[in-house]
């Protein structure tokens, strides 16, 4: 029997009342202030770090300020790197990995790169541990001029304009809840059938179909492999329904889908995907895998002559 989501009518898109019922059922499960803002505040006085608020969520502007950290290179003409986490608020290691990178590794690139880091793009999603924003919209399908995500629109406006962004790493997770909650919710919201999928066990990256950069993706895979295992292809040679383009690598059309990794037009882009529900990985390994991915990606971009 086909599983059906507990909100809405099978086969019919959600009404405004259905969306309101979904929002009302969300509960706060952790603190964005304590787990994100306070950690960024602690870095505020570090040499070269500039913490700014680039916006706020209209839902509660005081509770949900949108924060970014910039590390300015000694050479103002140095190229830029953009690192984003928490576009999907429930993907914890993306948020904490971006912060950990700031804490332990960002300063090592100061002479080579300007770095812009938005660790938690979707703070309400972080607190309720959910993929969507309060309006039942997936921010990571909204990085386009007509997108309906306040989180995406405010981030796009915040990325430094008129600069040479050469590398953009967007930090994500693929979780078991993608199958138990989020994909069924999408099907219910849109009035479509839910077709079960398979969650890969391990880390993988998503490159851009229009600009895949296989050597860059391979360098990230090699860097992460020292920390956690890489997702194998399934029996169809795929990962989450996409053909494998290299070990642990698939490609999506970033701009067509409105993905965050496509918003900067950088030469090197990737979406990292950690698997936190694996019996072979801990939460700490997942955070360290994100740091390893960022470091490997930045190292490759620098060596490529950015």
Would you give an account of this structure?
- The chain has nine helices and ten strands.
- The chain has one domain (16-303): Aminopeptidase (3-Layer(aba) Sandwich).
- Strand 3, helix 3 and strand 4 form a beta-alpha-beta unit.
- Helices cover 33% and strands 18% of the residues.
- By secondary structure, it is α/β, with parallel strands linked by helices.
- Helix 7 packs across helix 9.
- It is globular.
Distance between the termini: 54 Å
The overall average pLDDT, rounded, is 96
CATH secondary-structure class: Alpha Beta
Overall structural class, as computed from helix and strand content, comes to alpha/beta
CATH architecture: 3-Layer(aba) Sandwich
User: What percentage of the residues does DSSP assign to strands (E)?
Assistant: 15-25%
**What is the CATH H-level superfamily?**
Zn peptidases
Subunit organisation of the chains: single chain
> How much helical structure, as a percent, in the residues?
25-40%
Radius of gyration: 19 Å
Tell me the major beta sheet.
8 strands, mixed
Order of strands, widest sheet: 1-2-4-3-5-10-6-9
CATH fold label: Aminopeptidase
The overall strand count is 10
Q: What's the helix count?
A: 9
Give the count of structural domains.
1
Summarize the structure.
The chain is α/β, with parallel strands linked by helices. The chain has one domain: Zn peptidases (Aminopeptidase, 3-Layer(aba) Sandwich).
Key terms:
306 residues, alpha/beta, Aminopeptidase, 8-stranded mixed sheet, two-stranded antiparallel ribbon, 10 strands, 33% helix, 18% strand, globular
